[in-house]
Write a structure and sequence with these properties.
By secondary structure, this protein is an alpha+beta fold. The chain is built from seven helices and ten strands. The strands form three sheets. The protein has a six-stranded antiparallel beta sheet, with helices on one face. α2 packs parallel to α4 and α4 packs across α5. The two termini are about 25 Å apart.
Length: about 270
């Protein structure tokens, strides 16, 4: 995507939004029971249908699921072989912030940054991408909010490219499904989103490159589910938003997206930002 800019984005978003117009309320699914405060949805992308819905229009903090939008803008406005110099602003952002380990002045490709963004959820990658694509983080955030509107994510507002906590940074289950559905149309996004581990090329500070594992796949015994398989996903956590997860799966011939926001989880007891 990106060759015709907002026009194509809007057309695709309008089509997607109309498919999900029926999802105005909650919808139960046999065998699924979650906390009343959790926001969650299960969507069949092939048929534009809602299989499960709970509070999918309620605003919530997305944490690092934000990075799906950061990636959308990188694919739309950049080239994968662009050389990006890691800025000082990308480092040591906040206590507990997940960072890949780049050092100021390291030169990496945009492709490598996107792998670090989507697989390891690096906040240093998010800021480096934002500065490269937008010229500044503030300008990139404006681009994020404009793109959200063009894709029909009308209950979404971004304040940064990483998902670190901000009162003005929120979205909904339904809006996130729109964003991921659009992003998955890009073959390179889908390939990265479904990758379990990656090693960058050598940098000045890491002669052997930097190796990292998917924040989702490393916590799973197996991606296989009954009748299908989880293809890819993105995790998120902050103390205020709790755990978030958006996954892409194939099951019984269907293409499914599952979104869970504001959930408790036994996965991580270290209060890390993921």
């Amino acid at each position: 995507y990106g060759t015709h800019g907002a026009e194509i984005s809007t057309q695709k978003a309008d089509s997607f939004a109309s498919s999900y117009a029926v999802s105005s309320g909650n919808m139960s699914l046999e065998g699924v029971a979650i906390s009343d405060t959790t926001k969650a949805g299960l969507f069949d992308l092939d048929h534009g249908s809602v299989m499960f819905a709970q509070n999918i229009h309620e605003k919530s903090y997305p944490a690092s699921i934000t990075k799906i939008m950061t990636a959308i803008l990188a694919f739309k406005n950049g080239n994968m072989d662009d050389i990006v110099t890691i800025p000082a602003e990308a480092l040591n952002q906040e206590s507990g912030s997940t960072e890949i380990g780049f050092q100021e002045g390291d030169q990496v490709t945009l492709d490598e940054l996107l792998h670090g963004l989507l697989i390891y959820s690096g906040n240093d990658a998010a800021v480096a991408i934002a500065q490269h694509i937008g010229g500044s983080v503030d300008q990139f955030v404006e681009m994020m909010n404009q793109e959200a509107l063009e894709l029909g994510a009308t209950n979404t507002h971004f304040a940064n490219p990483s998902g670190l906590q901000d009162e003005n940074h929120y979205t909904t289950v339904r809006d996130l499904t729109k964003l991921l559905s659009y992003a998955l149309q890009n073959d390179t996004f889908r390939q990265i989103y479904c990758t379990s581990e990656y090693t960058t090329s050598a940098t000045a500070s890491a002669p052997e490159g930097l190796h990292f594992l998917s924040t989702m796949f490393k916590k799973m015994d197996s991606p296989e589910v009954n009748g299908g398989e989880i293809e890819g996903g993105k995790t998120g956590y902050t103390s205020k938003c709790r755990y978030t997860l958006i996954t892409y799966a194939k099951k019984n011939g269907m293409t499914l997206v599952s979104v869970v926001m504001r959930a408790d989880s036994p996965w991580d007891t270290n209060n890390e930002y993921t």
